[in-house]
What does this fold into?
Amino acid sequence: MQRKPFLKWAGGKYRILDTILRELPAGSRFVEPFAGSCAVYLNVKVETALICDVNADLVCLYQHIQREGTDFIMYCQSLFIPENNTKERYIEIRNEFNTCKDTRKRGSLLLYLNRHSFNGLVRYNSRGEFNVPFGKYKTPYFPLKELTDFYTKTQEVETHFVCCDFRTAFDELKKGDIVYCDPPYVPLSETASFTTYAGNEFDIRDQQDLAMLSKAAHDKGIPVILSNHDTHITRKLYADAEIKSFNVQRFISCNGDNRATVPELLAIYR
It folds into this structure.
């Protein structure tokens, strides 16, 4: 049975895990330069893993779960009370998160914000402040089982969580690695802007660098698989890769009833 991520995540890969896992070759170490919700990591079978992300709050949250297990999970659960499920209290906690320096506290607050914010978005402004509005959920779900499964995975697999740019992650690659990349996507239209993530812009130059590094890793015998929108830009970026295209259903409103189907692809260097 597949393990489900404990975080809500825009563009998360849980729904298309079978498609991704089917293309991942065997390897001794799994490397993910864009951790996100860790849906693929949770379900890939490897001996060791290097899980990276540029979002320091996300990485620290994963590190505290790995180190503390149940104690940290219960610490997070203490925030999920009815008194904290109001707009006023949400704003107070969001402000607390934006001024907090303690990584343990920030990790617990990030989980609270993710489960109480509009559409579960994780987004920061140019000052590095979390700025997603209140989500107005009747009873926000505390993902106890999913958190426990995540902790169990970190004990089953020798896992290193590292806060770094994807370029640094690629510098660490070695023979025997298998790599899966889920970067901020190329926009579907030419008029759409590129994604802001963790207070940083991920622009076309980053997309080009990622494609170049993926091809270079492949040339050294390291397989790389990437997800992205299926557009003329990504087709050009991944011209040297095997392309598998498919449609994915995305939620585009908080009530879950408004859905859109968008074209995605896997670029496969193996």
